């Protein structure tokens, strides 16, 4: 090979790489990020010796569920009462949704609750939203209460 053909091949390859960079940059700007959080809280306020409570519509404070969806990945964060079968119920529901579990971490939080983190991947053709996932998990956790 002579110098001209080597330079020509190098130029073609650089143009190919530039096109790939451009394509990847376009894809990264099109990433879809959705986040939904369900929290039940009770706020207690004290003011100069008197106290009062502001309750949510639900008397129960847990579970708190957060789902973040980015493309086909889902990050679930669940703060739930410490009960037997909570994790198995959550994973069962995740399986029913045809989600692939990539990572799971369960940490006891105090004496009465769990902090659960799950990262999943959904099939490309799946149209699940973060709101739907949270609603399904919330319903399942309340059935086991």
TrEMBL record:
Alphabetic keyword roster: Nucleus, Transcription, Transcription regulation
Protein name, per record: Uncharacterized protein
Subcellular location: Nucleus
Gene Ontology molecular-function annotations: protein dimerization activity
GO cellular component, one term: nucleus
Coiled coil ranges: none
Superkingdom to which the source organism belongs: Eukaryota
Main localisation: nucleus
């Amino acid at each position: 090979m002579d110098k001209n053909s080597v330079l020509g091949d190098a130029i073609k390859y650089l143009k190919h790489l530039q096109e790939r960079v451009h394509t990847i940059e376009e894809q990264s700007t099109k990433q879809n990020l959705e986040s939904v959080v369900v929290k039940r809280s009770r706020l207690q306020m004290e003011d100069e010796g008197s106290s009062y409570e502001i309750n949510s519509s639900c008397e129960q404070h847990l579970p708190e569920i957060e789902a973040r969806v980015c493309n086909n990945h889902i990050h679930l964060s669940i703060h739930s009462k410490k009960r037997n079968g909570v994790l198995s119920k959550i994973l069962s529901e995740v399986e029913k949704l045809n989600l692939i579990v990539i990572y799971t971490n369960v940490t006891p939080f105090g004496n009465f609750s769990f902090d659960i983190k799950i990262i999943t991947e959904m099939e490309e053709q799946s149209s699940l939203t973060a709101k739907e996932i949270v609603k399904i998990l919330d319903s399942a956790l309340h059935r086991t209460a």
